[in-house]
Amino acid sequence: MLLEVRDLHVEFRTRDGVARAVNGVSYQVDAGETLAILGESGSGKSVTAQAVMGILDMPPGRITGGEVIFQGRDLLKLKEAERRKVRGAGMAMIFQDALSSLNPVIPVGDQLGEMFVVHRGMSWRDARARAVELMDRVRIPAARERVRQYPHQFSGGMRQRIMIAMAIALEPALIIADEPTTALDVTVQAQVMDLLAELQREYRMGLVLITHDLGVVADVADRIAVMYAGRIVESAPVYDIYKAPAHPYTRGLLDSVPRLDQKGQELYAIKGLPPNLTRIPPGCAFHPRCPLARGLCRVDEPSLFEVSATRGSACHFWRECLDG
Amino acid sequence: MAELSKKDEPVDATPNVSEVAEIDAHSEEEAVAAIEAPVERGEPILQVRNLVKHFPLTQGILFKKQVGAVKAVDGVSFDLYQGETLGIVGESGCGKSTVAKLLMNLERATAGEIFYKGQDITRLSGRALKAVRRNIQMVFQDPYTSLNPRMTVGDIIGEPFDIHPEVAPKGDRRKRVQELLDVVGLNPEYINRYPHQFSGGQRQRIGIARGLALNPEIIICDEPVSALDVSVQAQVINLMERLQDEFNLSYIFIAHDLSIVRHISDRVGVMYLGKVAEIGTDVQIYDHPTHPYTQALLSAVPVPDPESREGRERIILTGDVPSPANPPSGCRFRTRCWKAQDKCATEVPLLAVPERFKGSDSPAAHESACHFAEEKDVVHAA
Q1: For residue A193, which of B201, B137, B300, B141 has the smallest C-alpha distance?
Q2: B86 lies in a domain?
Q3: Which domain covers residue B103, as residue numbers?
Q4: For position B100, which CATH number holds?
Q5: Interchain CB distance below 8 Å, B260 and A238
Q6: Molecular function terms in GO for this entry (chain B) (predicted)?
Q7: Looking at the domain assignment, is residue B344 inside a domain?
Q8: Which of A186, A195, A242, A277 is the best substitution to test chain B (most B C-beta atoms within 10 A)?
Q9: Using CB atoms, which residue from B201, B258, B263 is nearest to A267?
Q10: How many independent structural domains does chain B possess?
Q11: Does the beta-carbon distance from A267 to B238 stay under 8 Å?
Q12: Averaged over A135-160, what is the pLDDT?
């Protein structure tokens, strides 16, 4: 197993009290596998990724429990200096907003080259040559000329390619991509997702894809973990989940998305709003919005029940949900 | 850059003004009367002809001289029928939001006409313009920045009544605002709350209530749900559909999400670099697209069904959208089009039913601005 997250808990101190952003998240990613983490804003999907990557702002954030086992070592027990070596070389991250993730006053070639100078001890001359190779690799036209340009001289899609080049520079075993195509137009999104999938195959990297887009997930993921209020509520292979979701929240999400290939009737809408993380409802966090909720759901927090050898659902009535 | 302004080519696609019921407004009175007259369901309520908006690019500090123009909207024509939803889709920079601003008269058009019930609103002023503005309202994309954080919800929704007091007399206003809150599914007791006390979806409901306040006939929605989460998006879309039936509204629905646009629209126009590439009913555009850009756009949308991974044709376009300050000659899509030939560089394709489909009753027979229009299904798996 490449990465195993076990029972991760993260809290934030806010003026309203303690926000419990991540409440016992566990997942695994193998080499060459794509795990999609699906969730709406405030579900804890990005915070989980930041904790795994070791870039969580602490304070106000605090990891209150759990383990992050990466290539056999618990990253949470490492010193910051060692952690830093893992970042970039072992695992790398791609962010949503490439413009604010790149330094605006440094040429992109130098930002790419810096990876080799810092992690590999290369000379700047060699590092720049590698930067050109990388830009070629992510199919940026005229890489040799553009290596000296600044981020603002690139289009959104090209900037995201540079972010991908940076992420694969040191050939990491794992990439975490946090909404990598959300800011891009749909034709550019297709180009970028294609590139990412191709590179992943080539280097046999594990990929954790964080997104709210059910379409992108269906296209590229092997497995899906659906998050709600800081917990994984359903985890399953991609084909299973779209065929028959085993959690009412997943079902609600799938039913509320309009289809491109047919004109549907009225959309299903999940009633209410996601909970405030400082006041997560007792029992199952989804019960105030759930069509299947009963007395049990208000008092007993469901664990991730085993639906099959490869599937789990955190719903007391998953059988009912599975049957539709 | 200097030669840019010279080759400002004349606007193509001759306007079809003849069919517009032109009422020569000699006096303001007549114009106002025309604007307040009702329109039958299914009749055109808004007719856009050859609309152009160029933003000048200037150089120099003291003596500014124009060195070119960003051709944000460059000859757009379409009709909006009473009671329907016209979707406008396109990628960033295609000019769809500028069209919205022009329809609202928030930007002055460089050329072209917008006929609202036969009155060209780009030339109106005074009382007539005020009457038009009452009837065309807008809902904005970002519910966080489009509501004044220092005003209560009651003041935000009631503000339109300050400008149009004839709609709700002073004493009636509070009651009217509470009714509006109720209509959009918010608790009428929230009238004294401030925007920060609401979630994104609730704020968008406030924006919709403000849009409804003056009983408009047309609502222009610019990306009204793109800032919302999936589960909340569905709530707002359903609300908008309900309100359309209840108040007999016509919508122009601008968005980049093609699935949502299909869901809500009766007809859809696809824009690329300031021009309409293709326009037709939702079935014509989504199931029988004939313009290569529409086909590429649709094929790039991931469908939430892993079974369709195989079997669906993917057209991956190369390159980026060219700059609207310096669009390609001829067909604007030709630099990214796999069908492009010499003709495409020299001749601007007109938005019309392609010659080969003329007189045919096939769904492919709809307006498409391509020299080599050809039907291709890219949405459904083979």
Answers
A1: B300
A2: yes
A3: 2-58+68-265
A4: 3.40.50.300
A5: no
A6: ATP binding
A7: no
A8: A186
A9: B263
A10: 1
A11: yes
A12: 87
The pair of structure tokens assigned to B193 is 């709350």
The one-letter code for the residue type at A214 is: L
Cα–Cα distance, B160 to B324 (Å, whole number): 35
Q: Which residues are A252's β-sheet partners? A: none
pLDDT, tens only, B53-84:
999 888 887 778 888 888 999 999 999 999 99
> What pLDDT, in 10s, does the model give residues A288-318?
999 998 889 999 999 999 888 899 999 999 9
Give contacts of B 140-199 with A, CB under 8 A.
199
Are the Cβ atoms of A218 and B235 closer than 8 angstroms?
A: no
Cβ contacts of A73 within 8 Å, gap of 6 or more: none
The answer to whether residues B48 and B83 touch, using CB atoms and an 8 Å cutoff, is no
How many structural domains does chain A have?
A: 1
Number of Cα atoms under 13 Å in the Cβ half of residue B380: 11
Residue A324 or residue B353, greater confidence: B353
Whether residue A107 is contained in a domain is answered as no
Instruction: Give the neighbor-by-neighbor strand order of the sheet with B250-255.
Output: B136-139, B218-222, B250-255, B85-89, B267-272, B275-281
Query: Angle at which helices A108-120 and A156-168 pack, to 10 degrees?
Result: 10
Q: The domain that contains A300 carries what CATH number?
A: 3.40.50.300
Chain A to chain B Cβ contacts (< 8 Å): 128
Residues of A in contact with B202 (CB under 8 A): 273
Residue A134 counted as domain residue: no
Interchain CB distance below 8 Å, B256 and A191: no
Interface mutation vs chain A, best among B92, B96, B202, B230, most A CBs within 10 Å: B230
The minimum CA-CA distance between A53 and chain B, rounded to whole Å, is: 25
CA distance B97 to B55: 14
- At B24 the pLDDT is 46
Let me know if residue A133 belongs to a domain. Answer: no
What domain range includes position A184? 3-99+174-322
Mean pLDDT of A120-136: 91
Strand positions, DSSP E, chain A: 3-14, 17-29, 34-38, 61-70, 73-74, 91-94, 174-178, 206-211, 223-228, 231-237, 305-308, 311-313
Buried b / exposed e over A265-282, threshold 16 CB at 10 Å, is eebbbbeebbbebeebbe
If we measure between CA atoms, which residue out of A3, A11, A49 comes closest to residue A211?
Answer: A49
ipTM of the complex: 0.83
Rounded to a whole number of angstroms, the distance from the CA of B106 to the nearest CA of chain A is 26
